[in-house]
Amino acid sequence: DQQVKQNSPSLSVQEGRISILNCDYTNSMFDYFLWYKKYPAEGPTFLISISSIKDKNEDGRFTVFLNKSAKHLSLHIVPSQPGDSAVYFCAAWRSGNTPLVFGKGTRLSVIA
Amino acid sequence: IAGITQAPTSQILAAGRRMTLRCTQDMRHNAMYWYRQDLGLGLRLIHYSNTAGTTGKGEVPDGYSVSRANTDDFPLTLASAVPSQTSVYFCASSQRTGSNGYTFGSGTRLTVV
């Protein structure tokens, strides 16, 4: 039973346009949601997070939106740059000594 | 430079052999984790440790064992490797899970033949 779902394995976007990566979850008890970025031959790195009590968090070109009623979050990258090309993982956490739960990832390609 | 060190970076292993993947962190983080990454399956948790002396099973623990004798080290052992354990293995640590998430190592690429 997959608790965190990223239904789009890949996404291609033109440089300068907006990239929107989507994530759905099933467990309404999650307290935090996080996005990680992964380049080939490197470990994932933390990008941005949002608490379940908020609906938006912004950090430079990256904004995460949370819709709790729909159990859906999205990562917006504006404007997209070629260096943003990577695999993006959505993750969720429930308070207590529980590990993060990751989605399967979405490969973003930003085309110059 | 503070962070997580994984060794080896890559390995080709004969099926049936025993192998230990090493993971060391110098951030004094309490919790440590092992994930495997497979195409189309994302990051799946193998084992974790919330603090030195304790371990727990993740989503795919079979065929793997871990130990946490101290804060810094969290080795992952494959007692008798099988081809389905061919994967990229990532070690991670966190002071606590939450808004800042994990710090990951660079991974070990393991091929079992």
What is the secondary structure topology, with strand pairs?
The complex is a heterodimer of chains A (112) and B (113).
Chain A (H helix, E strand, L loop, with lengths): L3 E2 L4 E5 L4 E7 L6 E7 L6 E7 L4 E4 L2 E6 L4 E6 L8 E8 L7 E2 L3 E6 L1
Parallel strand pairs in A: 2-11
Antiparallel strand pairs in A: 1-3, 3-8, 4-5, 4-9, 6-7, 7-8, 9-10, 9-11
Chain B lengths: L3 E4 L2 E4 L5 E7 L5 E8 L3 E8 L6 E2 L6 E3 L9 E3 L8 E8 L8 E2 L3 E5 L1
Parallel strand pairs in B: 2-11
Antiparallel strand pairs in B: 1-3, 3-8, 4-5, 4-9, 5-6, 7-8, 9-10, 9-11
Describe this structure as you would to a colleague.
The complex is a heterodimer of chains A (112) and B (113). Chain A is mainly beta. Chain A contains no helices and eleven strands. In chain A, the strands form two sheets. In chain A, strands 2, 4, 5, 9, 10 and 11 form a six-stranded mixed β-sheet that branches. In chain A, a hairpin with a 7-residue loop joins strand 9 and strand 10. The N and C termini of chain A lie far apart (38 Å). The model of chain A has no long low-confidence stretch (mean pLDDT 95). Chain B is mostly beta strands. In chain B, a hairpin with a 6-residue loop joins strand 5 and strand 6. The mean pLDDT of chain B is 93. The termini of chain B are far apart. The chains are: A mainly beta (112), B mainly beta (113). At the A-B interface, strand 4, strand 5, strand 9 and strand 10 of A face strand 4, strand 5 and strand 10 of B.
